[in-house]
Design a protein that fits this description.
With 487 residues, the protein is mainly alpha-helical. The chain has one domain (8-482): Amino acid/polyamine transporter I, CATH 1.20.1740. 75% of the residues lie in helices and 0% in strands. The protein has 19 helices and no strands. The longest helix has 34 residues, at 249-282. It is globular, with a radius of gyration of 21 Å. The mean pLDDT is 93. The structure holds 4-fluoro-L-phenylalanine (PFF). 4-fluoro-L-phenylalanine is lined by residues 18-19, 21-24, 92, 95-96, 99, 227-228, 230, 233, 330-331, 333-334.
Length: 487
Amino acid sequence: MREQWDSRTAFVLAAIGSAIGLGNVWRFPYICFKYGGGAFLIPYFVALLTAGIPLMILEFSLGHKMASGAPTSFAKAGRGKEWIGWFALLVAFGIVSYYAVIMGWCFNYFGYSFNLSWGDATKDFFYNKFLTISEGPFKFGGIKPFIMLTLFISWIAIVGCVWRGPKTVSKVVYVTVLLPWLILIIFVIRGLTLPGAVKGLSYYLTPNFAALRDIEVWRNAYGQVFYSLSIGFGIMIAYASYLPKKSDIVSNALIISLADAGTAFFAGLAVFSTLGYYSYTQGVAVPDVVEKSIGLAFIVYPTIINLLPFAGKLFGALFFLMLLTLAIDSAFSLMEAGMAGIMDKWKVKKRWAINIGFGAIAFFAGIIYTTRAGLYWIDIVDHFMQNFGLMTVVLVECIFLGYMFKLSVLKEHCNALSDIRVGKWWDICIKFITPLVLILLLVFLIIEKIKGAYGGYSRGAEFLGGWLILIVFFIISIVLMKVRSRK
Ligand code: PFF
């Protein structure tokens, strides 16, 4: 029999653990700041309601009904569709390859907290002392040994956590999900009581209706919702496959999605109130106080830590420990999903060998990000995995399950188990709204890419960090589908 979760709470916590991660505390505030604060929030919540939640229900229903990881679930749903599951897992692999590096940064910052080594100039520290960032993506400038070491530690930690499968996961998540909330609350309180906080908050919370015309804002909102909910990663399909026969799908999906969005919103309060404080001390408007870079969190949170009235070092250390606990259950959820994909297709006895193999490959893939040019590569890969990778997976998922498969089969399965039943609106979201919006966003993205490379990088860097990876992933997915299963 398939392994199962210890309890419903364990499943909900594990799925929340996968969803809530660096995506909420590090990525959401940065993307939200980059795309205009209040201008971003409306598209974000629209995307959550019309695509995020419906797709979470879809992925849970598929995984539960087929009782398999992503590749086999798609294979059972239709001939020749197994590649969708593999492709999802590979895109997620692309994400976790740099995600573990950011976990490594957290390990470093955890160490720095003990004597607040970043000083007052947190921005200068991050770019010039910690990363010693080079001038461009091809100026590698050698590996940063400490970052590589912490990347290694991250992988040891991730592999350690999944050692025995869902049973271990069930226990670890109690700590990794509940502890972070406590610390985040302290940070938000400090942020909100800083002078100038109101300015930052009004930038964060005042809707900007003019920005709703900006396609880029919408695209990032959809992408961020998928990223944050771990949708299109193949993870939620695998996790749902471990649920007992009688499990309420809709309410689980709602709890998980809302907890995830709530955490991101909450982390935003801490970050934006601090941006308001920067604006107050520097006399510069909020949008211009600091670069809109993926390093934002590592500049802003240390500032909050500096400003804590007491026990700053302790809370600093706890905060980075919290980021680590948040990240770790996201990263291992992907390993679990990969493992489910492999185990369903091939009879593998040595689970440990796959775990170590996965960790080792991901570690080596991550070395490029530990060079002095690492930040640029994280930026490019992150952009492509979110914008093309996840969005394509979700689009294909909607088209395939919505049109080439009987969506009603999944709907009936889900409604037979759930207290809250999904209605017509769900079909409309899966069949029409989400695919249409995604097609539109992708068409605009392609036009944008024809005009110029992402973020002002060279075409070469964009090709290597973006297109090439996606093409290779696609080919591997087809190959994996074609390899005969051995069961
Ligand atoms: N949902 C995760 C987050 O928001 O941090 C994203 C994630 C990244 C999940 C990497 C899984 C993963 F391996």
